[in-house]
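User: For a benchmark we're assembling, each entry needs the component sequences followed by a predicted structure for the full assembly. Here are entry 17's components. Please fill in the structure.
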Amino acid sequence: MMAERDEPTGALVRPYAVTRGRTRPKLEIALEALVETTVRGRSAGATKGGQGREHQYIAALCDGRLQSLAEIAARMQLPLGVARVLIADMAADGLLAVYEPTSLDDTNDAVGTELLERVLSGLRRL
Amino acid sequence: MSQRPPLTGRVTSAKIVIAGGFGVGKTTLVGSVSEITPLTTEAIMTSAGVGVDDTRQVPGKTTTTVAMDFGRISIDRDLILYLFGTPGQTRFWFMWDELVRGAIGAVVLVDTRRLADCFAAIDFFEHRRLPYLVAINCFDGMQYHDPQDVRDALAISSEIPVVSCDARNRESTKHVLISLVEYVLSMRRSRAVAPA
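Assistant: Structure for entry 17:
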């Protein structure tokens, strides 16, 4: 599928209703940051502790399965900004764990170098 | 003794950006190695973004939707690599900023019949100092130009790898990604300050 769209669809503006109009997330989350449902998030989902439909969907989607912000947004057909607000809210409530990507900015940083080496050997194993 | 946690115990992710002109095969390349069918994610540029991408010339237009295709490769249990295709229209720079932030590097996929389509991407990555390589997509197995000719035509530094590939082929795409990460690692090692 080619993603070449020039015109606003209108349908994508309304999803901000699920965030009650908020466009600023409680924390910045990278596109590729990984999200996983916490034990608390799982039990909250089971008891439907006052959560919205979207919260329940995200908690089920990331239960025992690492999913990135981009994947969650795509699978929910929500704009990235909306998914980011929802995930940040849930993370603030301890329902989700968010794992940020490893920074590669510092060339002297052994953690970044080791990450690149792991990616390289992983690609060679594919 | 420091109790440094083992690196493999930390859940984290990484991303590689796949850029190039419209129809050059970005999504095909992503799909050839992705463990999931490429997904599409959309971002909205609201009126808050005006000034980044000038919408003032279109009266009443306050939102623009930009779509990106991406795929996923599980490197191991704790490390997932994402491949993000850039939006087709290079004027959506607000999204490119987010795409390149923290990226390992970029693959600039080129069709030698429409070489100029990749100029904007190369300029952007050079400006942001994001490491990239050029991958010539050989449609139907045809290589139209020698990599050296492409390098000359793009006027890029001699250290930047230029490789040929078939974006439909998994092994070929793997080779492109491996070449990029090897290049990034070698640059990183050459730039790292030697221990005293």
